[in-house]
Design a protein that fits this description.
Radius of gyration: 13 Å
Mean pLDDT: 94
Strand content: over 45%
Largest sheet: 7 strands, mixed
Distance between the termini: 40 Å
Shape: globular
Low-confidence stretches: none
Helix content: under 10%
Structural class: mainly beta
Length: 124
C-alpha cells in the first residue's frame, strides 16, 4: 500500500527556514510527479510546487516563487520542500501528494496519493 509521510514541520520566526520531507513507501515504480500543498483552516488546499521527475521540471506558485524549492531523491523515495524567508502568512498545514492523474498540478484532488500533513507555524 502506498503511503506518504511528511516531516520537518515546526515553529520558526519570520525570516527563518525549514525543510520539509515526504517519504513515499509502497511504490513499485518511479513516481512521475510529486507536489507540495498547504491548507489554512476553512480554506482550500493551495498548490505550492510540483516536480515532474521524468523531465526534471519544477513549477511554483507565485506566492512562494524565489523562496521555496522543491527537490527529490528518487533513490530514497523522498521529496523535499526547502522553505526560506518564511513569513507569518506561510503558517499552515503542509501536505505532499504524488502521481497527478487529472487536472492541473495545483489541484490537490487530482493526485492519486496524499499525505497526512505537517504543521508549520511562523511567528512575527
Amino acid at each position: 500500500q502506498v503511503q506518504l509521510v511528511e516531516s520537518g514541520g515546526g515553529s520558526v520566526q519570520a525570516g527563518g527556514s525549514l525543510r520539509l520531507s515526504c517519504v513515499a513507501s509502497g511504490y513499485r515504480r518511479e513516481r512521475k510527479s510529486m507536489a507540495w500543498f498547504r491548507q489554512i483552516p476553512g480554506h482550500e488546499h493551495e498548490g505550492l510546487a510540483a516536480i515532474f521527475t521524468g523531465r526534471g521540471t519544477t513549477v511554483y506558485a507565485d506566492s512562494v516563487k524565489g523562496r521555496f524549492t522543491i527537490s527529490h531523491d528518487n533513490a530514497k523515495n523522498i521529496v523535499y520542500l526547502q522553505m526560506n524567508s518564511l513569513k507569518p502568512e506561510d503558517t499552515a498545514f503542509y501536505y505532499c501528494a504524488a502521481d497527478l492523474l487529472v487536472g492541473s498540478w495545483y489541484e490537490f484532488g487530482g493526485y492519486n496519493f496524499r499525505g497526512q500533513g505537517t504543521q508549520v507555524t511562523v511567528s512575527s
